[in-house]
Amino acid sequence: xxxxxxxxxxxxxxxxxxxxxxxxxxxxxxxxxxxxxxxxxxxxxxxxxxxxxxxxxxxxxxxxxxxxxxxxxxxxxxxxxxxxxxxxxxxxxxxxxxxxxxxxxxxxxxxxxxxxxxxxxxxxxxxxxxxxxxxxxxxxxxxxxxxxxxxxxxxxxxxxxxxxxxxxxxxxxxxxxxxxxxxxxxxxxxxxxxxxxxxxxxxxxxxxxxxxxxxxxxxxxxxxxxxxxxxxxxxxxxxxxxxxxxxxxxxxxxxxxxxxxxxxxxxxxxxxxxxxxxxxxxxxxxxxxxxxxxxxxxxxxxxxxxxxxxxxxxxxxxxxxxxxxxxxxxxxxxxxxxxxxxxxxxxxxxxxxxxxxxxxxxxxxxxxxxxxxxxxxxxxxxxxxxxxxxxxxxxxxxxxxxxxxxxxxxxxxxxxxxxxxxxxxxxxxxxxxxxxxxxxxxxxxxxxxxxxxxxxxxxxxxxxxxxxxxxxxxxxxxxxxxxxxxxxxxxxxxxxxxxxxxxxxxxxxxxxxxxxxxxxxxxxxxxxxxxxxxxxxxxxxxxxxxxxxxxxxxxxxxxxxxxxxx
Amino acid sequence: xxxxxxxxxxxxxxxxxxxxxxxxxxxxxxxxxxxxxxxxxxxxxxxxxxxxxxxxxxxxxxxxxxxxxxxxxxxxxxxxxxxx
Lengths: 566, 84
Fold this sequence. Notes:
A: Rossmann fold, GMP Synthetase, Chain A, domain 3, five-stranded parallel beta sheet, 18 helices, 27 strands, 23% strand, B: mainly alpha, globular
């Protein structure tokens, strides 16, 4: 029997209050998310239980108990306080998937700071833009990424402290301090910051069609939703070995790679290594992983490798598989049944929702290719894109809307009320995705409702890419769109018109690709560049990305009445 | 010839994929993909570089993380398409 049991019964009976009580949230006035992921597990007698098994790319393994999480996160909280950081300050974690990343996340929360996780592969421009917007006060990083921080620091007057967690012997510069988690004085007891359920906790940046990336702000009570969805959707149980493959630079890596896992008191494993089918299967076999939460891109890469590597490993420990990031295609679900003897359960949510809102549940019939059904406590509907009224016709495509009010929902876009307000129409939160519902209430994903590119499950904003492209000396104008990709669903393609004096060439393509990769990130790097004489524009001069994207996808171009004459 | 190819690839990896302040040593055995120096997205630009420099076409199914995981692995792959 799965944790959720009967979906229909849960749907009928569930209230968020029940989830709150099950977690003990607010009991004795305790609301701090960091406490719920460390101290609370120790208080209920599981301090010696292994919380984290970390493996690096060289095969080195490190283990941490819940007591370790508690004490080391205390050390981080103390360090930050001693250096003048205050509750509410934005403190960025900018590291590869090392234990210090996961544990400092809790430490920041325990001192009352707002954690700002950023993907360590971000280049200088992407990093600077997000730190500047959040007016980030401190950043925790490693030697590997310190160069990027140093090169942008002069443009970030608010950034008063850089903490290097693996500083070694090489000298640091002014405003930088070294901190070794394992060598630091152990703080058995600290005063955990008093917070309320609505106190800000985590600030995750996400991309939109226009403008700069937006910081979706979450609050401490998000843990209520993250814990119950970990239990009911991911079906984790006390003895499970859980592997969430997401990087904490993205919301899955924090909501389910830190908060959901540790608030549930389970053992999780982390592999800090690049993808390879052999390495992943060997990791599952070695650590006897039972619950595996991954992404469609990774699953399709594993499919590409075929059954041969599967058959070379003992994967019999696997009990439950789930996926998130972009829609999981039916073929991948069917293949996972063939390869692993069980299907991947697709789940749907976003940075803004903070936790899973639509999913396939253990024990419920899976329709391969479907997103599943709304989580109990979530009211989801398909809305008319013009009136924002629910569409009750089976199979009609509309916008996914959610009734606001679940605990992990974002509370604002940082410093961007106007964009935040636009996300709510007619009493619904508008996800920005299109879908339909079938006669049995299953949701079927159709696509985004904007120009944001979903590549390997990560949203990339075309505006950010185009802005960076314009800073390249050869680029006169550009448009970035998503083009279909069999593994990543979409990858970035850039259309570029060159300035006079520049000629298209393979060398120039490569130079521009690498330029974007270094300035923004590998995800934002165009995988293809098409040089054009000019870009299609409206009569008011706005580039019609929609038209370029439609061509890439072989779709109807739609209304082009506003297109500028050739 | 093989040594020249290795040197060329090492220089390219250092120039394009390591931070300009990095003092990390890259040898023909250094793990590129599994260590995170080159990720799956960046493999596209590395593949383009190899195709252009060695005047070959590497089929997508051959461009796997394992085949790109070190300079030695890459050279083994290149030998399928060109004498080095």
